[in-house]
Amino acid sequence: MTRSGYFNDLHNWLISEDFTSTRQARLHKAYVAWLSLLANPLAFAGFAVVVLLILIATLAPIITLHDPVSQDLTMALKAPSAAHWFGTDEFGRDVYARLVYGARTTLYISILVTVIVAPIGFVIGAMSGYLSGWIDVVLMRITDIFLSFPSLVLALAFSAALGPGIENAVIAIALTVWPPIARLARAETLTFRNADFVVAAELQGAGMWRILLRHIVPLCAPSIVVRLTLNMSSIILTAAGLGFLGLGAQPPMPEWGAMAASGRQYLLDAWWLTTIPGIAILTVSLAFNLLGDGLRDIMDPRNA
Amino acid sequence: MRDHNDTILAVENMSVEFPTLSGVVTAVRDVSFSVGREKVGIIGESGSGKSTTGRAIMRLQPPKAVVKADRMQFENIDLMKASEEQMLSVRGKQIAMILQDPKYSLNPVMTVGEQISETVILHERVSRKQARERTLAMLERVNIRDPRRVFDLYPHEVSGGMGQRIMISMMLIASPSLIIADEPTSALDVTVRQQVLSILDDLVTERNIGLIFISHDLNLVRSFCDRVIIMYAGQIVETVAAADLDNAKHPYTRGLLNALPSLDHPRDRLEVLRRDPAWLEN
Amino acid sequence: MSMINVDHLAVSYGRGETMTRVVKDVSFDVAEGESFGLVGESGCGKSTVLGALGGRNRQWTGTITIDGETINQKRSISQLAKQQMVFQDPFGSIHPRHTIGRALLEPLEIHGKNNRQERVEKALKDVGLPLNFRYRFPHQLSGGQRQRVAIARALILEPRILLLDEPTSALDVSIQAEILNLLKDLREREKLTYILVSHDLAVVAHLCDRIAVMQNGTFVEVASKKQLQNGSVTHPYTRTLIDGSRGYVVKQV
After folding, report:
1. Could you say which of B119, B146, B175 is where a domain stops?
2. What is the domain count for chain B?
């Protein structure tokens, strides 16, 4: 009774727009976003899968019984059983353990790419939109050059040039992902460039970096976050593709794309080797897509 | 002679409600009025329900909104019972609407002339060539100096005042018996406003039709209309003859008049409107 | 002593072939504590004059002197603080994702002022807003309240001059009265100099002592408040504007 009363009070405090502190204003925004996420089942499903993925990656040693890299040739290519939930691969490694540890690789790649790409894309795009003139022309033509290649081909070329390995795969993918972000940041910046509140800040003496970071970032952030979330699935697929072609993660490191690739030879005898990582790639990229779509509805100021 | 008693539109106890997450919001509450062959002004502040009233008469309210009324009679048509098909012929032909920004009422990918010609062909069943002649005549009729040039312009190429005149020229062809003008001159400069209003004034007088003029501008309504309906928070608080607006009795109307800076009655401080909850109790 | 002196000001937009001169040749003087009005129809250049004074339009020639200091196209930070602008659209002039407190802190941070919390509280009090409004977002405020925030943001740097660009034309009549009264009180209390741009002659005459009537980038007449009220103006265009402010003029048959 008192418990639900407490939650009721908390709900009312969070939903009330009669703020008494900055913290309450911030929490209110987060709470309203949470409520609208709950109201959108598909986005929430995507969100749940992403949260699950993060949990699996962090808890990997706790939730697995087998080592993902230790080989046991006597146990090679065993079908799914109570001991090995998703069976074993050609070296007798537990597919379940490799899948769980593979989630770490996938997250590592996609988070690292995002962290590299978001600031670079934003700064190039926003500077281009804010300063206009020849800086805009130069930056946008460079962007166009990167955009004119199919992104998988470009990533392939880069990682072939840089040499195989997960760090190089991250760099190669990042090089293909930033141009659309820059384009988006530029377009968003242009819409706010001449808004009265930006002019007001300029007339009060705010410099370019202050305007970009304090005024433009909060407005561009929603669409960039949405775009990055939607990009996650293509990053995962590209990473898997590179892994599949042997250019990404190197054996014995567990990586979903590489797992699917190596299982190809045993497709008829051991279906689980390709199917399980395939399903994992599909589920996670679908989840990021659904979440991104939902975030667009929630965060877009035009819907507010 | 104009006959003010000849009622074109009669509205009795009309309400417009919007269902929202936090309950039903009543935008317009129990308004009753009638319009004859005259210029009736509806005045009120933002959120007073004046535009919603105008749209509800045309049955152009947003899909979620619910319109209730004891009676809504337009000439011999019961607007509450009319089918959507019937309304399609009412709108534009029998009741015309002018909005603040004509760009939203015109098709952006057709030239102005083509659009007026379409109306001519629809109403008068004439050939394209004849329609063009009629259109040019109509453009001239609304004081557009170079009708041949304007004929080939796209809506985004015409100024606000020109756009309103184009809207009016379309009405000249359709010859409606009631015009609803929602802030038709708010975006226009004083001199252009004067021209547009005088064309509208002539149209109403010549054709002997009714006009509902929705505005927030007290001086404009006072000088342009015959009668003024004052709306506050979705209700009609008072209806007075435009000439008697200065003698309005309701404290809200008085408050608005005193809040207005004026060249003729300069005062050091403007009166601040004190809203009284009792105004909403009938 | 004059607070603002403008001599042969011309302002243009664009470059080369597409350059248009919006303000042609304008000179005027505004005394300390005076309110000077600029009226005219859209496109006459009244907002552009204001923009040049405020530092928004930099493509100008002529001489501008503010508080005894001759101003260049590029201004120092202390020159920027001398005059502050209030914009027409209260929905577009405050950052939609900043709380009111954030919006008011911003200029203080740029200018490195101390006692920031006290200054924010004072600014809110000055414009008649409750202190807890600082935690709100603009979308929670009405148009009139936002315009008060915009005035508070302008005042927080303690400027000598307020440049008002149609500050009440997006507001309802009753709210307009509140803002006009507030502006009048503030000018008296803070000894401010105003330049008010508006298309509404009655509003300008209410707040200003002298009014310049603009047409096509030039002043056609500079009239006193008295002249506008008793109709002793000389230029026919001024008369047209006066008639327009009274509403619709029925044609004489």
Report:
1. B175
2. 2
ipTM of the complex: 0.90
Radius of gyration of chain C (CA): 19
B114 & B77 share domain:
no
The mean pLDDT of C111-127, rounded to a whole number, is: 94
Q: Do chains C and A touch (3 or more CB pairs under 8 A)?
A: yes
Q: How many CA atoms lie within 13 A of A242 on its CB side?
A: 35
Q: Is residue B245 in some structural domain?
A: yes
Q: Lowest mean pLDDT: which of A125-129, B143-147, C100-104? A: B143-147
CA distance C219 to C235: 11
- Tell me if chain B has a CB within 8 Å of the CB of C142: no
What is the distance in angstroms between the Cα of B93 and the nearest Cα belonging to chain C?
27
Closest C-alpha among A229, A265, A230 to residue A244:
A265
Per cent of chain A over pLDDT 70 is: 97
Query: Which CATH number applies to A46-303?
Result: 1.10.3720.10
Same domain for B132 and B217? no
Question: What pLDDT score does C251 carry?
Answer: 66
User: What mean pLDDT is reported for chain B?
Assistant: 89
pLDDT, greater one: B160 or B57: B57
Cβ atoms of B3 and B37 within 8 Å: the answer is yes
3-state helix, strand and coil shares in percent for chain B, rounded to the nearest 5:
40, 25, 35
**Is C209 in the B-facing interface, judged by CB distances under 8 Å?**
no
Mean pLDDT of A158-174: 89
What tens digit of pLDDT does each residue of A212-259 get? 999 999 899 888 988 898 888 888 888 888 888 888 888 788 888 888
B270 in any annotated domain: no
Cis peptide bond upstream of B63, omega within 30: no
Give residue B144's domain range: 103-175
Q: Which of A221, A227, A222, A242 is nearest to A288 (CA)?
A: A227
- Average pLDDT on C195-214 reads 94
Strands (E), chain C: 2-13, 20-31, 35-39, 60-66, 69-70, 83-86, 161-165, 193-198, 210-215, 218-224
Which among A24, A206, A214 has the least Cβ separation from residue C135?
Answer: A24
Confirm whether B115 is domain-assigned: yes
Let me know if residue B190 belongs to a domain: no
pLDDT of residue A1: 47
Burial class (CB in 10 A: 0-12, 13-18, 19+), A41: exposed
Distance of residue C136 Cα from the nearest chain A Cα, in angstroms: 6
Which residues of chain C lie closer than 8 angstroms to A19, CB-CB? 132, 135-136
Question: Which residue intervals of chain A bear CATH 1.10.3720.10?
Answer: 46-303
pLDDT of residue B119: 85
**If phi over 0 gives left and psi between -120 and 50 gives alpha, with beta otherwise, what is residue B48?**
alpha
Nearest to A19 among C85, C111, C135 (CB): C135
Answer yes or no: are the C-beta atoms of C93 and A196 closer than 8 Å: yes
Helix A272-299 with A256-263: angle, nearest 10 deg: 150
Residue among C35, C133, C147 nearest C93 (CA)? C147
- Report the alpha-carbon distance of residue B180 to residue B185 in Å, rounded: 13
